[in-house]
Specification:
With 318 residues, this protein is an alpha/beta fold. It has 11 helices and 10 strands. A hairpin with a 5-residue loop joins strand 3 and strand 4. Helix 4 packs across helix 5 and helix 10 crosses helix 11. The two termini are 23 Å apart. Bound molecules: flavin-adenine dinucleotide. The site of flavin-adenine dinucleotide has 21 residues, from strand 5, helix 5, helix 6 and strand 8.
Length: 318
């Protein structure tokens, strides 16, 4: 079933969903099941699986020269999605990115997904590779997420890259996109970011999932700005508890967001790791309760492998 159909069926009730990362190469599905098994009691209708493109590393050869090698540390998104659907009977939402994919590659993945009856995708551009200062599109691939949305939407109309294909199967993908309450870091301003978000909706995207935020007002303001800009699709808040000291500087640096002073001070005062975890859990519970009371369609938790913490939050909220 489509993610947006779940929202409609819920009739104003706030659903819950989770996001997992594929295990590092060499890992097993057990790692994913260990994260999800304890969370299934909260009955998430869908689970997202992130996508991680290749990275370049330099390997020293016997000659002393270094060789640049491409590796994918976390492969397996499509297989994990199929496995989640098989084990739990819930929908899985693979993230698809532009980086590292030609349009042909993307089409072939979409065909696989369609054959596997995976009818939801989150369409993203992806970030710049570590050693590159900015996102460089793959030759023959997409520059922006909107082009990916467009390609998926064309397949939904039975149009494939090969224009000789007549009466091609019409896929039926429900398309999610990313939203940034604190604006995407490359965007000159929020208005322009919303301008492009609106273009993605007009190209066929059905709903938005936000980047994490720690001050609900930022989400509420973002939703208002979206509505003012004519974006009417569901906007799902993405939530992540902050539980570790290093995250105080790492999260703003990596995700380009602000942390509220109260939260940062509380975490700073906490005596040990467990006390910090409790501060983060409590903050996330309050955030979640307020968002739920405001009638958001779904609370989407980034698990980052920390089942215990996410479970404590979900228990207090649902
Ligand atoms: P885009 O929509 O392409 O936007 C990128 C920038 O370009 C923005 O500043 C936007 O304003 C601007 N822009 C958009 N369209 C145009 C245009 N036509 N012309 C000029 N400027 C334009 N990354 C992964 O690698 N794997 C994941 O699984 C993953 N999951 C994510 C899940 C969520 C919920 C979120 C919020 C992010 C996720 N990301 C993931 C990160 C995402 O790939 C990055 O934030 C990336 O930098 C931008 O992706 P986007 O889809 O928002 O890009």
């Amino acid at each position: 079933m489509k993610v947006t159909d779940y929202f409609e069926q819920a009739k104003g009730q706030t659903l819950i969903s989770f996001e997992v990362l594929p295990p590092l190469k060499g890992g097993s599905m057990k790692a994913i099941f260990d994260i999800l098994d304890p969370l299934m009691e909260f009955k998430p209708p869908f689970i997202d699986v992130t996508y991680h493109r290749e990275e370049y590393i330099y390997k020293r050869r016997d000659s002393g020269y270094y060789e640049k090698t491409s590796i994918r540390k976390r492969p397996g998104t499509v297989g994990i999605c199929a496995s989640i659907m098989h084990r739990y009977g819930v929908d899985a939402v693979p993230h698809l990115i532009c980086g590292g994919f030609t349009k042909e590659d993307t089409e072939n993945v979409l065909i696989d997904l369609n054959f596997l009856n995976i009818n939801n995708v989150l369409a993203l551009r992806g970030d710049a590779m570590k050693f590159e200062g900015k996102f460089i599109p793959t030759e023959g691939g997409h520059n922006y997420a909107i082009e990916l949305v467009d390609q998926i939407n064309h397949m939904n109309q039975g149009q494939y890259l090969d224009t000789n294909i007549e009466n091609g199967e019409k896929t039926d993908f429900c398309i999610g996109i990313a939203g940034y309450p604190e604006k995407h870091f490359e965007s000159p301003n929020l208005d322009l970011d919303l301008h492009y978000a609106k273009q993605k909706i007009e190209a066929g995207a059905d709903y938005i999932v936000t980047q994490m935020f720690f001050d609900n007002q930022k989400y509420f303001d973002y939703v208002k700005s979206c509505r003012d800009a004519g974006i009417s699709v569901p906007i799902v808040p993405g939530l992540k508890p902050i539980t570790k000291k290093y995250q105080l500087s790492a999260l703003p640096r990596i995700f380009h967001l602000d942390l509220p002073s109260d939260l940062a001070l509380e975490l700073g005062k906490a005596k040990n790791a467990e006390a910090r975890r409790q501060v983060g859990i409590e903050w996330s519970i309050q955030q979640s309760k307020e968002l739920k009371a405001a009638g958001v369609p779904c609370l989407h938790y980034y698990t980052m492998g920390d089942t215990e913490t996410i479970k404590s939050i979900a228990e207090a909220v649902y």
